[in-house]
Design brief:
With about 180 residues, this protein is mostly helical. About 75% of the residues lie in helices and about 0% in strands. It has helices spanning about 1-25, 35-60, 70-95, 105-140, 160-170, 175-180, and strands at about 30, 100. The two termini are about 50 Å apart.
Length: about 180
């Protein structure tokens, strides 16, 4: 559950920033405060619908891959990625307050910008999730829930857990450590 919440939260923040940038860069796209709700829709679509669409397009294009040249295959792959992004953009616009006018500036370029944004997100994803995980763990500890290690913030670790943690630190079992100390 923690990983799903952290993943959704990190992608939500990133999508909100990307949507605000799309609204600022493209004159025919009006985002404004609707970026908050649109980011929820965009994040849900990216996590739930995008994998299904990607799988369906890959399956459909794989059937005729042998009939295409290498360049043709790349064009089909990029085209299917663009179609997935376009479908997600249309869902975001339809179910949020984002307003679009103009075909090129409102419907064609935003999916390209989303794709570029998600490529950047993929590069910083691990660091962003780690930071979001720290925030989640700190908030969980403050409200008295279990921390990331799985034990309650108020309970002391068991002796077996302490021995296991000591073994992880130096790689020695308690008996090996005792024998080394006797030397």
């Amino acid at each position: 559950m923690r990983n799903a919440i952290v993943r959704f939260g990190a992608l939500y923040v990133f999508n909100a920033i990307v949507l605000l940038l799309v609204g600022m860069l493209l004159p025919n796209v009006s985002v404004g405060w609707h970026a908050l709700w649109a980011s929820v829709i965009l994040t849900a679509a990216a996590l739930l619908i995008k994998p299904l669409l990607t799988k369906a397009f890959r399956k459909g294009t794989a059937k005729s891959a042998a009939d295409r040249t290498r360049l043709g295959e790349k064009v089909v792959q990029y085209g299917s990625v663009f179609l997935v992004e376009l479908i997600i953009w249309v869902l975001t616009v339809v179910f949020s307050g984002v307003r679009v006018s103009g075909v090129l500036w409102g419907w064609v370029l935003p999916p390209v910008l989303l794709l570029i944004g998600w490529m950047i997100y993929d590069r910083v994803d691990d660091r962003l999730r780690a930071k979001a995980g720290e925030i989640y763990d700190a908030a969980s500890a403050k409200i008295g829930r279990s921390s990331a290690s799985g034990r309650s913030a108020t309970t002391a670790p068991s002796p077996a857990a302490e021995a296991g943690r000591d073994e992880l630190e130096d790689g020695l079992t308690p008996e090996q450590r005792r024998m080394l100390d006797e030397l």
